[in-house]
């Protein structure tokens, strides 16, 4: 974590003054839009940051003396993905979480004829879970409550629209047989992934990472 919070990793984060966010340096060179999974173009930040936020929470729980060293860095990731405050002028409010739809959207600045999408609900849940754990470990009731609220809403939405039991009453029966929607766009559902159409890809990406929240 010392390497990350001091910016000594190869693709350290930079603050982007155009869109007010944290982006990987990997995509700043010409024709490198897709580097780091498009991170520099705001693709999948809630997926990416969830791993670091949850790891930070575990470190904070095991070694509270390290919290002051990493607190600003970890909470900058939170502010970038889903800043809850209208008073924070450095980041927009809730960049990824859509309170009306009840879940997050991927795809940053990339154009898409079918709108934004999400294909890895498990990584979204990993972000919300990590946020709740970070709040718990650092004794921030505001961040813990925010993580718990987003987690609860997303859980209900995902079990309705993304991961479907046989008795699902919402989705078309042709979708329900697949059990997962695949890439869930604003305008369509595509039983596929961005990296291949194998069933193990389509289902597997809804399963990783496997953490204590997965059972929920």
From TrEMBL:
It catalyses: Hydrolysis of (1->3)-beta-D-glucosidic linkages in (1->3)-beta-D-glucans. It is an enzyme of class 3 (hydrolase). GO terms for molecular function: endo-1,3(4)-beta-glucanase activity; glucan endo-1,3-beta-D-glucosidase activity. The keyword Electron transport does not apply. One of its GO terms (biological process) is polysaccharide catabolic process. Its EC number is 3.2.1.39. It holds the Pfam family Glyco_hydro81C. InterPro entries: Endo-beta-glucanase (IPR005200), GH81_C (IPR040720). Keywords: Carbohydrate metabolism, Cell wall biogenesis/degradation, Glycosidase, Hydrolase, Polysaccharide degradation. Belongs to the glycosyl hydrolase 81 family. This is glucan endo-1,3-beta-D-glucosidase. It comes from Rotaria magnacalcarata. The lineage of its organism: Eukaryota, Metazoa, Spiralia, Gnathifera, Rotifera.
């Amino acid at each position: 974590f010392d390497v990350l919070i001091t910016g000594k990793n190869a693709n350290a984060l930079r603050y982007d003054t155009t869109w007010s966010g944290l982006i990987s340096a990997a995509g700043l060179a010409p024709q490198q839009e897709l580097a780091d999974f498009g991170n520099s173009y705001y693709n999948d930040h809630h997926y990416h940051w969830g791993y670091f936020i949850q790891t930070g929470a575990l470190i904070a729980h095991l070694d509270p003396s390290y919290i002051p060293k990493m607190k600003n860095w970890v909470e900058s990731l939170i502010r970038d993905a889903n800043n809850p405050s209208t008073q924070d002028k450095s980041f927009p409010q809730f960049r990824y979480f859509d309170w009306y739809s009840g879940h997050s959207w991927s795809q940053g600045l990339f154009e898409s004829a079918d709108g934004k999408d999400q294909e890895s609900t498990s990584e979204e849940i990993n972000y919300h879970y990590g946020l709740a754990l970070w709040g718990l470990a650092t004794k921030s009731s505001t961040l813990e409550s925010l993580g718990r609220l987003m987690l609860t809403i997303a859980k209900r939405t995902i079990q309705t629209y993304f991961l479907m039991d046989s008795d699902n009453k919402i989705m078309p029966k042709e979708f329900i047989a697949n059990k997962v929607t695949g890439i869930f766009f604003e305008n369509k559902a595509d039983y596929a992934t961005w990296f291949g159409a194998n069933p193990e890809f389509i289902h597997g990406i809804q399963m990783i990472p496997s953490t204590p929240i997965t059972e929920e």
